[in-house]
Amino acid sequence: MGCIQSIPCDKSHIKRENIVVYDLSATIDQCPTIVEEKSPIVLRYKTPYFKASARILMPPIPCRETWVVGWIQACTQMEFYNTYGDIGVSSWELPQLREGVVRAISDSDGMSYPWYGNTTETVKIVGPTSKPSSFIVSMNDNFYPSVTWAVPVSESNTPLLTHIKRDQSFTTWLVALNAISREKILLHTIKWRMKVDIVVNPTLPLGSRSRLVGRVHQDQPRLLTHMESIPPNALWKPNANDAQVLMWRPRRGPPLIVIPPK
To answer: Using CA atoms, how far apart are residues 56 and 4, in angstroms rounded to an integer?
Structure first.
């Protein structure tokens, strides 16, 4: 048996028009956010899942090079406020995003930069290959945070939480990346948003305090007809989880950092 001979390449032979994307889908589950009141310390809520999937047909790779195809995601806007009556508000914030220093922050798992993850989210093709490669890449994302019933900077455990409001936006790209040259071929751009609005009566018994308000179902993701470029901060550290800060903003007095960035 003869082996595939690698062709010396000055530049990649892989072009955008030679990569075929079939069965592209992006949805948010049509179910409401679930609020959990099991713990006397925290309220938890679980949002529906954002899901994206695509079948890719990658052309033969004539060179001795490696391509990775998969999903890159960035957070482009975040409001996450937990109100404690007229005492104050705690908020998870991305300072650079809030202040307009950057347009987006990576939403990688913190290990697989620039990719959202490295299981179903990416596929690696090592050239040279003699035949086209067909595969599926998929990802899903949702929120499942904990919010303290009591004021987060207080020694007291008295439940005072009255309102949770969250509004977060993301851009998700389907990308083919040359692992050696770092050449990126953008295949698709998706925009999606998740909103949560929960009112809480802290005087009621645990299990009956909270109520989901506003729209029950989320808006469905938008598959853009044009390609949007990826901002540099969407490709590398820090990711959103490591960059976020928990602030306490009392009605009176200066704000405090409760949990600093990692």
So the answer is: 23
